[in-house]
């Protein structure tokens, strides 16, 4: 995945990666791919078929006819499964609770990761910010810019509770902890692989985090200066 240019962003829930990745894409005129939305859409598809995402056979069967429609415009975040607009439905609690069930099936991850690569390869954008859980290590391990965006668990829980109006913060924190534990059994999204730059947003607000990520992109894409002896 070297054409177009890839900015790969990984991170746990509540780290701010979706908000930051979208803002960076807008600022730079890049495309934006939310890989988590695709897994949510697949979970919705399983549930829509009347199946359970804890049933691996049902997940495989749903993945076999999974027709995802997802663009790269940071300002058009509509998601389709076939003709169904599932943009709002994939954010419902029942889908959120089911996502880990589809993401833990290895062959499904291979299929969906291949789909991500095709979406990016077919892009008309000069560059795409791709964010998710194993983008820096599996989907685009050779990306010129690879970032792990993280934050302390209590900070992530507070952010997620703030996004979910009316939800009890302790319940949100426990749900986030369970998801971290479940998903980390499939992919390590809490530890930076070699060559991946860490941006810790625990003490940063959104604008500061965006600036920190933009600084990484600039560092990774600006040619090194000539040495003093050459100038």
UniProtKB/TrEMBL annotation:
Organism: Microbacterium resistens
Highest rank taxon of the organism: Bacteria
Phylogenetic lineage: Bacteria, Bacillati, Actinomycetota, Actinomycetes, Micrococcales
Matching Pfam families: Cytidylate_kin
Molecular function (Gene Ontology), one example: kinase activity
Localization terms from the record: Cytoplasm
The name this protein goes by in its record: Cytidylate kinase
Entries under InterPro entries matching the protein: Cytidylate_kin, Cytidylate_kinase_dom, P-loop_NTPase
Positions of ATP binding: 11-19
């Amino acid at each position: 995945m070297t054409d177009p240019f890839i900015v790969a962003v990984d991170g746990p829930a509540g780290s701010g990666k979706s908000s930051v990745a979208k803002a960076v894409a807008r600022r730079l005129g890049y495309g934006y791919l939310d890989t988590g939305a695709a897994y949510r859409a697949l979970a919705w598809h399983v549930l829509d078929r009347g199946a359970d995402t804890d049933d691996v056979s049902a997940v495989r069967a749903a993945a076999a006819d999974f027709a995802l429609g997802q663009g790269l415009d940071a300002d058009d975040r509509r998601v389709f499964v076939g003709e169904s607009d599932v943009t709002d439905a994939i954010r419902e609690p029942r889908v959120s609770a089911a996502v880990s069930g589809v993401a833990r099936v290895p062959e499904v991850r291979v299929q969906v990761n291949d789909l991500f690569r095709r979406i990016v390869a077919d892009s008309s954008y000069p560059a795409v910010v791709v964010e998710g859980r194993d983008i820096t290590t599996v989907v685009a391990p050779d990306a010129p810019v690879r970032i792990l965006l993280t934050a302390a668990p209590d900070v992530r829980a507070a952010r997620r509770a703030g996004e979910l109006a009316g939800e009890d913060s302790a319940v949100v924190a426990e749900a986030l902890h369970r998801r971290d534990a479940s998903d980390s059994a499939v992919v390590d999204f809490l530890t930076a692989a070699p060559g991946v730059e860490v941006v810790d947003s625990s003490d940063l607000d959104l604008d500061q985090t965006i600036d920190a990520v933009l600084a990484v992109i600039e560092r990774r894409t600006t040619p090194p200066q000539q040495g003093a002896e050459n100038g």
